[in-house]
């Protein structure tokens, strides 16, 4: 798939106009599956040509009535698996939003003063989602982190083996310093709980990213699609003759599309995938909310 800007591929709300949504090109899997559909059409044309040379060059259509149902179940399983991963990732980032706000509220309120220590903590909390985003997308250079922390601290984050953990340590150390400077035990433990849940959230996101859908499911699904479409023209040729390529194209387009949707949803963090999570917008919202507490 050719690369586009992340904001053009990020998940967006659907257009309420039915026909605009039905005919949309941007954000659709159609550009990815059209080459496969074209190959299927050419293959069907070749079958039509061979049928003229060999008149009994066909098979019965009955097996396809049963195999089509099995293929449908496989495709539904593949797409549902991808959708489950996408939705779980979105829930994790929803929890990151809430936990970042809670951590910032506790740290900025319970000491009763907004000094340099509080400012430092809020800046680290605001930078943390950006660091998480860069880690999940394998983007070591995140401009927002440099803007918030400065070039020196951003370089330390970049050199860390696990950047989110490095930021978590900085937040823990700042919380410890705040505890010695007036933060009561209740507030400290609550802030530590929110910090721990943020680590849990990034761990869950890394699990989604690093554990693809079982390869055996992808192999069997795509092998079944291939065999189905290779044999389908042979079953249609006697009944449809020159219309066979058209019907095969109409059958192959949804099959390839459902398969591609399942593949695209496997990694909801990658900016190269269709309908990936709008992490930049989420991180900017967290940053804005957290830094607003410093005023």
Structural notes for this entry:
This protein has twelve helices and no strands. It is elongated. It folds into two domains: 29-83 and 212-264, no CATH class; 95-210 and 279-292, no CATH class. 33% of the residues are buried. With 295 residues, the protein is an all-alpha fold. The longest helix has 48 residues, at 62-109. The model has no long low-confidence stretch (mean pLDDT 90).
At a glance:
This protein is mainly α.
Low-confidence stretches: none
| Helix-strand pattern | HHHHHHHHHHHH
> Distance N terminus to C terminus?
45 Å
Question: How big is the Rg?
Answer: 26 Å
Mean pLDDT: 90
Q: How many distinct domains?
A: 2
What is the count of DSSP helices, taking H or I runs of 4+ residues? 12
Structural class: mainly alpha
The fraction of residues in strands falls at under 5%
Q: What is the tally of beta strands?
A: 0
Helix coverage percent: over 70%
Shape: elongated
- What about the largest sheet? none
Short descriptors:
single chain, 295 residues, mainly alpha, 12 helices, 76% helix
